[in-house]
Amino acid sequence: MSPHEIASEKAPARIVKLVSRYDYAATVSRFKETLQQRGITLFAVVDQSAAAALAGLNMRPTTLFLFGNPQAGTPIMAANPYAAVELPLRAVVSGEHAAGVHIYYQDVMKTLEDEYGLAANLLEPMRALAKLMAFIAGQE
């Protein structure tokens, strides 16, 4: 199997997969630019394919983003410190395979509500995540 083939399409139910209307480089750029324009903190960008190359391995272009808004996330973590495992938010841009370029992210609303027992009012700012990801993918 080539490093650009997908061995399995099985993903946890809480993972959302979007197909980007843009190529890999443009999707990565849109991600960074959109966060900056909306005042969302970009904590880290991890080029996972570059890390693989440093280890002598080959994988499709893959970039992990850690991002969020401390004003939204801090009250959640204060209410339940275990929620810090889920925050900051994470998304992956993965590209150059037969199915196109994808953005993968976790449906944190469901996870934080169901598994951490957090009140709906604390989670309200997280509702914007789906629209943000759709915008980056060019689906909105």
Question: Would you kindly provide a written description of the structure presented here, covering whatever features stand out?
Answer:
The chain has a single domain, classed as TATA-Binding Protein (2-Layer Sandwich), CATH 3.30.310.70. The protein has 140 residues and is α+β, with helices and mostly antiparallel strands. A five-stranded antiparallel sheet has the order 1-5-4-3-2. The termini are far apart. The chain is built from six helices and five strands; from the N terminus they run βαβαβαββααα.
The CATH homology group name: TT1751-like domain
Distance between the termini: 35 Å
Q: Write the CATH fold name.
A: TATA-Binding Protein
Helix and strand composition category: alpha+beta
Sheet of most strands: 5 strands, antiparallel
Oligomer: single chain
Taking all residues together, what is the mean pLDDT?
Answer: 90
The CATH class: Alpha Beta
Rg (C-alpha, Å): 16 Å
CATH architecture: 2-Layer Sandwich
- Count of domain modules: 1
Helix content: 25-40%
Order of strands in the sheet with most strands: 1-5-4-3-2
What fraction strand?
A: 25-35%
Return residue spans where pLDDT drops below 50 for at least 5 consecutive residues.
none
Number of strands: 5
Which geometry do the CA atoms define? globular
What descriptors fit this protein?
alpha+beta; 5 strands; 6 helices; globular; TATA-Binding Protein; 25% strand
